[in-house]
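thread: overnight batch results

M.L. [08:02]
morning all. the overnight job finished for the chain we discussed friday. pasting input first so we're all looking at the same thing
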Amino acid sequence: MRAVVVDGFGGPEVVRVAEVPVPQPAAGQVRIRVRAAAVNPVDVAVRVGVFGGEGEQLGLGWDVAGEIDALGEGVGGWTIGQRVIALHYGPVKALGAQAEYAVLDADALAAAPATADDVSAAVLPLSGLTAARALDLLELKAGDSVLVTGAAGVVGGFAVQLAARAGLVVTALAGADDEELVRGLGATHFVPRGSGPDGRVDGVLDAARLGEAALAFVRDGGSYVGLHPGAGPASVRGVRVVDQEVAADGALLARLAALVDEGALTLRAGETYALADAAKAHARLAEGGLRGRVVLTV
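M.L. [08:03]
and the structure it wrote out:
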C-alpha cells in the first residue's frame, strides 16, 4: 500500500509516498480503509524533527476518516464497511493516518458524522479532541468568561463553538479580518490580534500559544490552558496553569460527531490534495493564510 513518510528531517521536500506492507490488526484493533486524512501542524513538527526519531522512517498523519476494513480478535460493536473517524495518536510511528490503510485500537474509533463527507469528517479528531479536552481542563461553569486565542483557527474555532454551547461568555482573539467568522461560531466579544479584552476573564484557552501575554488576561485565581505540553507559562497571581496533551478517545469523539450531526459543530476543511501530492500539501500549509484544514484524499 501507499503511505506518506519522511526518512529525514527538513522542509516539504522530504515528504514522500512509500510502498509498504498493508498492516494487520492485532487483538482489540481495527483496520480502516482510509478515505481522507488531514494535514496538521503536528505533522510539520514531526517532519522537522521536533519529536526525534532521526534515522527512522516516520509515518505522518493523525486524523483519519474512512471505513472499517478488518477487525482484530475480540473486537465487538463494529462492522466491516462502517464509516468511522479516529485519532491516530503518536508523533513517532512507522505508519500514520496518511496511508491507504491504518490500524488503530478499537476504542479510538467513533462513527463518522452522518451529515459530513469523509473530507470534512477528517478535520474533527485531532482538533476537536484538543479543543474539547482543553475546555474541560479550564473547569469553568455556565456564565463564566473565557478568552480563546487563535479563535479563527481550526482548534480555536472548535473551542469557541464548544464554549458557547456550554454557556460560557466567549471572547475571541483573532485577526482583524476574522471578526465575522468567530462571531458566527458563537463568540460574544471580539478583540483583534495584538490587543486584549476589557478586564480580565475567568479562563484562557490559548490556541495561539501566546503564553505569558495570554496569561495576563486571566483574573487572579483563574485558569489558563495551553495546548503544547511543557510550553506553558509559569503561574502568577494564583492562576492555575495546565498544558493539555491530546489523546485518542473514541467516546469523546463520538459525542463531538453527534454535535456535528446536530448542526452544533461546524467542520472546516480547506484545500484537498491527492495522497500522491502530500509534499505539495505540506508546502501549502507552510504558506499560511488558511481558515480550514488541508486534507489528503486517498
